[in-house]
Specification:
362 residues, alpha/beta, Rossmann fold, 9-stranded mixed β-sheet, two-stranded antiparallel sheet, 11 strands, 34% helix, globular
Length: 362
Amino acid sequence: MSRLSRFVAGGVAVLCAVLGVSVEAVPSAGSATADTLDGVGYARASAAAPYRETWVSPRNLVVSVWSRSMQTQIPALVQTPANRNQGAPVMYLLSGSSGGEDNDDWTHATDANAFYANKNVWTVTPIGGAASYYADWRRVDPAANFRFGVKTPRPLRWETFLTSELPAAFETAHGGRTGPGRSRGIAGISMAGNAVLRIAENHPGFYRAVGAYSGCADTASPTGQLLLRNVVFVPALADASNMYGPPGDPQWAAKDPIINAYKLARRTPALWISAGTGLPGAHDNLSDRRIAGNVGELAEQVTAGGFAEAAARSCTVTMANRLAALRIPAVVRFPPVGTHSWGYWEDQMHQSWPMFARALGA
């Protein structure tokens, strides 16, 4: 798949399993093709030089951060604040199950750069982490240990990277302030919609704003676990048992954002969760710039993307009900249409921004 998240294949597989339907597997994007930064000669970080920057325009740069926990460099696409304030709030934008490696990150698949161009906030989009759920894995899985152009012999430590290594390096370089004193938010789509909720629960107060668009926060139930295992397996045959353990392991519940939603009450961020129905809408037509007249792309977005969004909707309803039961405030949006695709996530980015701007002080 070129633009649909690999979440689609997992979503269809889960729905078919639940409904008892037998169908051909949805074609996957295969292993990461490392398209996103092809032709960009960015400076790569190393243990000796743990933070590097490469400017590609007056407002945009590629940063590379050395991850001590994974012993590899991770690149990120960055845009400066409109007011050029080095200490401005930071908005971290996570991509879906491709990790943004296939030109399907926020910068390339949405109007994020144009949208944020007049906002007084940094945007940081890590590239890598395909099918990782941006989690800290228990064990090494060779099929999962791929990032943008690099591999690591270590278990994946994406949550550690996102909450410790990346902010410490980037925020110190720009503004000299990191930790709880820095204003920051995080938003993610699909696979990352699960991750941003889990990470916010595990790190109370670290983010002032959290956006989960079309994610599935359910990982402990049989259906939720089946979905996660499919998403992890599809790109390169990774085994999610290396992430949270075998089925029935207590870690699946310990990492489930729905079960652990009560943790958000400790220091509740500005919270926005959303999912469409899977029915075609405004972005499901040949004139949409992401479809660009491609009939096959449109058919895939409407069918596979429709199934996947319906699965995400079910999970998001469960999360919304849990938050309501706990009396944890959140803005919940359930549009009457929308497939599992970037046009609708771009819409949610626009709609959630006023709330996030207030929370961030941007």
